[in-house]
Write a structure and sequence with these properties.
39% of the residues lie in helices and 7% in strands. The chain has 497 residues and is mainly alpha-helical. The chain folds into three domains: 150 residues, Peroxidase, domain 2 (Orthogonal Bundle); 117 residues, Peroxidase, domain 1 (Orthogonal Bundle); 130 residues, Peroxidase, domain 2, CATH 1.10.420. It has a three-stranded antiparallel sheet. It has a two-stranded antiparallel sheet with strand order 1-2. It has a two-stranded antiparallel ribbon with strand order 3-4. The protein is elongated, with a radius of gyration of 29 Å. It starts with 16 loop residues before the first helix and ends in an 8-residue tail after the last helix. The model has no long low-confidence stretch (mean pLDDT 96). It binds protoporphyrin IX containing FE. The site of protoporphyrin IX containing FE has 19 residues, from helix 2 and strand 1.
Length: 497
């Protein structure tokens, strides 16, 4: 039961099919499912099986995690009758949806549209809907004794498939066109089970479908046969600043999230809607840089995706004097192969690495920072060295935390200044900004955001900062920064991992 993500009885147990439709749409939308996919999944899933609510929940013992050892991970043992078969209690909802619950057929829609439905209660007391005047032929076999017929039912969530105007249109079409229903279910089921596997290049085995599906975020194979040094030379002479090249490379690569392996620099989708217009990406600066990158791409044969990453490397090499590793071969995706709506959820609401945290974002910036770092697969020292290094290069969209004089040199100065004990930090009342005052003169000397100060305030982060701030840590700092930067740039390079 703990796995059901929409209350089957309706929002907060209110048996209103239209309100339920609203919740279903939001929940399935988060899984990037549209209305057609949602109807196919719910109706197709409920073509099979039954729900279980033969008696009240007080007959059911602890859930698997809370059950004693001897339950061997099962839990939910029941004292109601035999506790199994027709006596099973799980959701509290009771009944199958169709007359043949072990067969794929059109029974779900036949019944949904073949009857009027009335709100009743299961033996467990849960809201369910029963067909008015159901014939015995349309009833389901009892779970244990197939010669006995029992009424089928619909949950409030199932009733939404008929009552919500958009779901209703799709349900009717599926009812009249069983082939379309079967195909839509097969596709939506495949998507449900594979959507978090990342690019198609990660699939193995003989059953990989040849067809390219838009939710796989397809990216063509990129060119590797071009002159990398020539691209770097053109970038170096492009007139773009170190900060512009770093910010664009970061904006491109840092969309990656290890939770479902979407986003990242490959595909250069930062050129396309919706990413090109995200506020965090500074659209004016982005379009200026992209114009230059596209012309370099045309001239050299490198993909724009590679040029974006190379530009970041050129900037860091200029600022550090250290070579940044690079592996060519990223491809450029097209707008047609980009599901705009499903990319919208990747938009950064806040990004500590760029000190971006617009007013009104109602979550602590340092918490989103940790989330972003784990989605990028970064360790605590990697997160720390990236924030410190980027800030030392003047990267801060809200202007806080810029402690260093020379923002064209990668250095550990940011960490040194952060640990400066001659100042007293005070919040200035805006929620995300703080001011440092000289303890002797009272003079205001610098400002910082929460995600700057957390590196001094949190004991574990402070310990890392203290290592990087040491006078003899400068080489280690640069080496670690380059390593972590490269890790983010290649987070989505499954072809070279
Ligand atoms: C609006 C979304 C959904 C809701 C509210 C919902 C709710 C439920 C509930 C309450 C049960 C009964 C559990 C029990 O008493 O043991 C159930 C069973 C089931 N659901 Fe769903 N479900 C939804 C979507 C889906 C989807 C998308 C699928 C698969 C594609 C699916 C497949 C099944 C199957 C096969 C069963 C029967 C399990 C059995 O026979 O033990 N459901 N669902």
């Amino acid at each position: 039961m703990g796995l059901i993500y929409v209350n089957p009885q309706g929002p907060d147990g209110n048996p209103d099919p239209l309100a339920s439709a609203h919740d279903i749409r939001t929940t399935f939308g988060r899984m990037a499912m549209n209305d057609e996919e949602t109807v196919a999944l719910v109706a197709g899933g409920h073509t099979f099986g039954k729900s279980h609510g033969a008696g009240t929940e007080d007959n059911v013992q602890s859930e698997p995690e809370g059950a004693p050892l001897e339950e061997m991970g099962f839990g939910w043992s029941s004292t109601y009758g035999s506790g199994v078969g027709s006596d099973t209690i799980t959701s509290g909802i009771e009944g199958a949806w169709t007359a043949n619950p072990t067969k794929w057929d059109n029974g779900y829609f036949d019944l949904l549209f073949g009857y009027e439905w009335e709100l009743t209660k299961s033996p467990a007391g849960a809201h369910i809907w029963h067909a008015v005047g159901q014939t015995e032929d349309d009833m389901a076999p009892d779970a244990e004794d197939a010669s006995k017929k029992v009424p089928t039912m619909m949950t409030t969530a199932d009733m939404a498939m008929r009552m919500d105007p958009s779901y209703n249109k799709i349900s009717k079409r599926f009812h009249e066109n069983p082939d379309q229903f079967a195909d839509a279910f097969a596709r939506a089921w495949f998507k449900l089970l594979h959507r978090d596997m990342g690019p198609k290049t990660r699939y193995v085995g003989p059953e990989v479908p040849e067809e390219e599906l838009i939710w796989q975020d397809p990216v063509p194979v990129g060119n590797t046969n071009y002159d990398v040094l020539k691209v770097k030379e053109l970038l170096s002479d492009s007139g773009l600043t170190i900060q512009e090249m770093i910010e664009v490379a970061w904006a491109s690569a840092s969309t990656y999230r290890g939770s479902d392996m979407r986003g990242g620099a490959n595909g250069a989708r930062i050129r396309l809607a919706p990413q090109k217009d995200w506020e965090a990406n500074n659209p004016a600066q982005l379009s200026k840089a992209l114009e230059i990158y596209e012309s370099i791409s045309k001239e050299t044969g490198a993909s724009v995706a590679d040029v974006i990453v190379l530009a970041g490397n050129v900037a860091i090499e200029k600022a550090s004097g250290v070579e940044v590793p690079f592996t060519p071969g990223r491809g450029d995706a097209t707008q047609e192969s980009t599901d705009i709506e499903s990319f919208e959820v990747l938009e950064p609401k806040s990004d500590a690495f760029r000190n971006y945290h617009p007013q009104g974002v109602n979550i602590a910036p340092e918490e989103i920072m940790l989330d972003k770092a784990q989605l990028l697969g970064l360790t605590a020292p990697e997160m720390t060295v990236l924030v410190g290094g980027m800030r030392s290069l003047g990267i801060s969209m809200n202007g806080y935390g810029l402690f260093t004089e020379d923002s064209n040199t990668l250095s550990n100065d940011y960490f040194k200044t952060l640990l400066d004990m001659s100042v007293q930090w005070k919040p200035n009342g805006t929620g995300n900004s703080y001011e440092a005052f000289d303890r002797k003169t009272g003079e205001k000397v610098r400002t910082a955001s929460r995600t700057d100060l957390v590196f001094g305030s949190n004991s574990q982060l402070r310990a890392i900062v203290e290592v990087y701030a040491e006078d003899d840590s400068s080489d280690k700092f640069t080496r670690d920064f380059v390593f972590a930067w490269n890790k983010v740039m290649n987070a989505d390079r499954f072809d070279i991992q």
